[in-house]
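This section describes the prediction task in plain terms. A model, or a person checking by hand, is given the sequence of a single protein chain and must write out its three-dimensional structure as a string of tokens. No templates, partner chains or ligands are provided. The sample shown here is typical of the held-out split.
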Amino acid sequence: MRSEQRLWQWRATDESGDHRTGRLHAPTRDQAHTELAARGLIVRRLRRLRVRTKRLGPERLALRLSQLSGLLQAGIGLLDALEQLGENAETAAEHHYWSTLRLAITEGHSLSAALGATTLPLHAPLGTALIGLGEHSGKLATVLARLAEHLNARARLGRRLAAPLRYPAMVTVLAVGLMAVMLIEIVPTFAALYADDATDLPLPTEVLFALSAGLGARLEACLIALLALIAGWIAARRHSARLARWLPLLGPLLQSSDKVGILEALALAQSSGLALDVALELIATPKGALPLSRLASRVAQGEPLSVAMRAERAFGALLAALVANGERSGRLAEAFDHAAALERERLERRLERLELLLEPIVMTLLTLVIGLLVVALYLPVFDLGGQY
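The expected answer:
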């Protein structure tokens, strides 16, 4: 793709005197004027839009791939279809995305090469290979439609996986913020009230006052440590997903989600005609918890996938049995779909149990912590009342 291409926003008048607006790509302002003049337009305003090409999110990309598939099935050429996607883009960044993609194809690149591994957000090498296969087989529209369905399914599963954690996480953050305000603003007031009392304070109250004094004295250091923790988490996001798969509660859910995505991707690859060992190798990633590279190596050596799955003990006996049945019947794509549906149902049951347990547990713990904090504040009052 040519980096010198720039995006221009224009407003012009056509030969009938009607006002028109739009965007176009051109290396320079003069070439933009020349292209608009060639269309019979009198330019009234032309300004450069500074945008950065960003990859589309899974749901937006799935929608656009589905639209692209529909345009191709209607008999519209690929370049014209991409031009229409750019003209109907909702933002300047998305317009730039599709226009740059179209420009790369006019320069001789294939659609799969133009999309590249940095564009497709899920199993990027597999998606690129499937699109390339669709280009060579003449079934690009069908492959794009299947890929869009796959991306939509993965996006829905991702939202479902995050739903049980969103509310408890929000409540926890608010509760921690409330406790910090109490320790910094409210507890010192009680400490000043009890300072003139000659009697010894209860141990919980002394601990609370010491914690409040320490937090107030080191507030700036605590804020710097919090910011450093947030920055470290942002910097380690690429590795956080791999680490999360080994957590006792979240790990099994993420591994089950991985299995669903892999089985759905294999079903997509089989229905599109991609070789099984090639699909496994394309899906495999270094940070994945499942031994897909070893499975691909076994399948490439002629071993049935079901036998390799049992040997690696990665997917479970039931899923391996379903794949074995698909291998015997010659309907492996359907077997992968069925296995993915079963694993998705299992994941749904786990998420339902998590929703039933997680919210009450979090609320109970937060209530206990805040309750203990309040009781520690008023223990001296209770002791004083007991003396009379």
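For orientation: The longest strand covers residues 6-13.
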